[in-house]
Amino acid sequence: YDRVMIYRFAPDGNGEVYAEQCEARMEPYLGNHYPASDIPQIARELYKKNRVRMLPDVNYEFVPIRPKSRVGQTDQFDMTLCHLRSMSPMHLQYLRNMKVQASLVSSLLTGNELWGLITCNHETPKHVGYEMRLLAELLSEIVATRISALESLEYSRVELQVQNLERTMVEGIAEDGDWSAALFGSAGRVLQPMDATGAAVISADRFLSVGDAPDKD
User: Fold this and answer.
1) Is residue 190 a contact partner of residue 165, using CB atoms and an 8 Å limit?
2) pTM of the model
3) Across residues 124-143, what is the average pLDDT?
């Protein structure tokens, strides 16, 4: 594909192009942010159920499927898990606006949550076979598993830092009746759990700061 991106979702649903590789002639999207409305919730639910979605040609002509029904009845023909299910006209126009003719999207799921997408775009029609789509699904599962492990490790690291900070505060109050030394006695103690470069506490007429923070005035 001409462009391959990892699209990462933030907790508020907005998205970011987190990683990218594309042809030199193409405008890079790396670092771009997009609102949550770009990918509606109903589409996100489909990405959870269909791990890989391929669009060979954005200008395809859809073929209507009419289920056999009795008079006065309407059958619900569910194509959720069908790879041949047509795509939203809005999504097709979105791709055309980006000058994309073909796409392949693979979901990155951590637990039951949609962490992000591996999105492949091509400037001309492109079809990939079933084996290649299986490989894309396997790759996305490997990447998602690695993401889950890294996030779990990071969560454990921050949790340990917070526990150490709490213990130091309790010890400071027990010994000196003052918690401030626990927070500001060591430059990195209060900054590390929040990945911050500076911090300040204002309490009554007291001002304490550490790292890169504004002065008292």
Assistant:
1) yes
2) 0.73
3) 94
